[in-house]
Amino acid sequence: MFILIPRMGDLMSTNKSTKVEVKNLSKIFGKRMNKAKELSRQGKSKSEILKETGATLGVDRANFKIYDGEIFVIMGLSGSGKSTLVRMINRLIEPTEGEVLIDGENLMKMDKKKLREVRRKKMSMVFQNFGLLPNRTILENAEYGLEIQGVDKDTREKKAKDALETVGINGYNDEYPDQLSGGMQQRVGLARALANDPEILLMDEAFSALDPLNRTDMQDQLLDIQERLHKTIIFISHDLNEALKIGDRIMIMKDARIIQTGTPEDILTHPANEYVEEFIENVDRSKVLTAGNVMIRPMTINLEKAGPRLTLKMMKANEVSTAYIVNGERKLLGVVDANDVIKLVREKKGDITPIIQNKVPTTTEDTPISDLMDDISQTGIPFAVINEKKQLKGIIVRGAVLGALAGNEVSDFE
Amino acid sequence: MNSLILGNIPELPLAHWIDNFVNWLVQFTRFFNAITNFIGSINNAFQWIFDLVPIWLFIVLVLALTYYVNRDQQNWGLLVFEFLGLLLIWNLNYWRDMTQTLTLVLTSSLIALVIGIPLGILMAKSHIAEVILKPVLDFMQTMPAFVYLIPAVTLFGIGMVPGIVASVIFAMPPTVRMTNMGIREVPDELIEAADSFGSTEWQKLFKVELPIAKSSLMAGVNQSMMLSLSMVVIASMIGAMGLGTKVYFAVGRNDAGNGFSAGLAIVILAIILDRLTQSLTRTRRKN
């Protein structure tokens, strides 16, 4: 009877327009391409094709759409073709066949000049090993994209400084890349990409070279930046935890082919095949599941509309002993206990304000369940999930958490 | 024996063919004269400057230049060595010869650089160019340097110019090779970064590839310079003046004393040039 509240990403993707569309995109490396193509049509595997023709199947007929403003994670192990695929999106690698449409425009039909224009204005790339120029200072690195567009010194310096500030790098302008830690260097890489103010960010294993702590930091920061800038981000990763954390949608690749595309929730709950299943078994579910994933819809009472009688009636109807009190804007005010409400009704009081208990444990939607486990097992009142405006989004009951960890459907719980 | 293996194949008239080729080239006298004049005027310009500068000022300038290129990591030993070495050359009365040798080295290095670096870039960018140039470079470097003197005299007369031409041919390969290697060794990710931000080919070359290849490129220039210095004695055989001439004459007279003292002057010059170009190799930073 409780309904799972969908994640923001799911809602956004259905409303937004298509930013990048990939149609039948293939890449074959090596000779005897036609033979290799034919074999791939017959469904032969990457290794079979390599054995028979000596050609390497990089990407086999990829079809997908990326929506405006989403973080789209392409995930796979090394050799799955994910890096080749992302490089075909900006034509660093020339596709063997197929189309890439950016805002409906076919990238494959562009001449060098037009392509350069798209690379300069529409999309920027962030690299696994940062790709910073060792002979340039941090500021000069961040300026690179603007410099080659012929932007004058003052303007590009200002934009580069803004971008460096956005990623949280201050006071290193005159240092050189090798004087900075890996995490800092990748921030510069990100700043360089952002300085162009592109619509699309291509991030190729951008955080893979960082140590775990830095990686988590960068993931958080990327989400933070995305909140403000709303870019379309295509993120390559081999780490499912990372994909689940930052992806609005995830596409899983294996041996040059796409296995599954879907929201993190989809992938976790309905893995397309054994391969994906095996993949997600290795993921610590409690780390991946956030409060938003397991929360259920609470029974709420609008203080502005309801008195003790209505409250009691609704609680009875819903068979609950605690009700969450909100105002007209769904801002959480506290909880009331059924016993207190009954007392009020007996005393024939008209206002429930005095009995509201405002000591409610709260959390936010993106908090991992693993962080809440201890507290959930100790408190009687379910956690309230609120957003930054203190609006009540859902609650977390103990049973739902345990159920989600066990891999069951959350909605079956009472 | 010869006829057993090769059968009835007559001896190839290879030498004759090459003679014919050289003779055929001679008809372009005006072209070669123009080159001779051009190289000659570069050479004369250098020599004019060196003759104009008083010796004491020259020494001061060399020391100042050394001080400047090593400004972040001063090498006092080198400064002392240069000072004493140049004084010794002055004292031995080899000053003019030394400047003539220096002129020959600088002119041929300059030409080797101007031709060699673009060739190296071409080689790095084009597979076909690399396939063609590699054996040519091997040929240029391994053919005994004396051999170049023969056609050089035919085409450029005697004096400094044929010496410079022979030096350029012998000394250019390292510059070409090291430029090629330096550019090819620029990490793929940096090339991808340059491309992904929409650099033109020229922007990529000047803003990414050459700056990063700079130290190996400079190492090539350094080697070219040393090789052209090793050519000075050989070049003196066809009338290129300088320290080489002194050594060459000393050989003719079996005069070990003068031979060694002129040789020592070459060594001093070589060390100064080597250290100066080596410190240009190091990457320098703003702060």
UniProtKB/TrEMBL annotation, chain A:
The CBS domain, residue ranges: 295-352
Q: Which reaction does it catalyse?
A: a quaternary ammonium(out) + ATP + H2O = a quaternary ammonium(in) + ADP + phosphate + H(+)
Family membership, please give it. Belongs to the ABC transporter superfamily.
- Subunit and interaction comment: The complex is probably composed of two ATP-binding proteins, two transmembrane proteins and a solute-binding protein.
Q: Which domain of life is it from?
A: Bacteria
Tell me the organism's taxonomic lineage: Bacteria, Bacillati, Bacillota, Bacilli, Lactobacillales
Write out the annotated subcellular location.
Cell inner membrane
Q: SUPFAM superfamilies annotated for this entry?
A: CBS-domain pair, P-loop containing nucleoside triphosphate hydrolases
The way this protein sits in the membrane is described as: Peripheral membrane protein
- Its EC number is 7.6.2.9
List the SMART domains hit by this protein, alphabetically: AAA, CBS
Q: Species name for this entry?
A: Companilactobacillus crustorum JCM 15951
Q: What is this protein called?
A: Quaternary amine transport ATP-binding protein
- GO cellular component labels: plasma membrane
Specify the enzyme's EC class, one word.
translocase
The GO biological-process annotations, alphabetized, read as: amino acid transport; glycine betaine transport; response to osmotic stress
From TrEMBL, chain B:
Stated membrane topology is: Multi-pass membrane protein
Give the classification, highest ranks: Bacteria, Bacillati, Bacillota, Bacilli, Lactobacillales
The cross-references to InterPro entries, in alphabetical order and at most eight, read: MetI-like, MetI-like_sf
- Please state which protein family the record places this protein in: Belongs to the binding-protein-dependent transport system permease family.
Could you tell me what this protein is called?
Glycine/betaine ABC transporter permease
Question: Membrane spanning segments where?
Answer: 48-69, 75-95, 102-125, 145-171, 224-244, 256-276
Q: Tell me, what is one Gene Ontology molecular-function annotation carried by this entry? A: carnitine transmembrane transporter activity
Q: Which UniProt keywords apply?
A: Cell membrane, Membrane, Transmembrane, Transmembrane helix, Transport
GO cellular component terms, A-Z: ATP-binding cassette (ABC) transporter complex
The subcellular location is: Cell membrane; Membrane
Organism this protein belongs to = Companilactobacillus crustorum
What is any one GO biological process for this UniProt entry? choline transport
Is Transmembrane helix there in the keyword field? Answer: yes
Ranges for domain ABC transmembrane type-1: 98-277
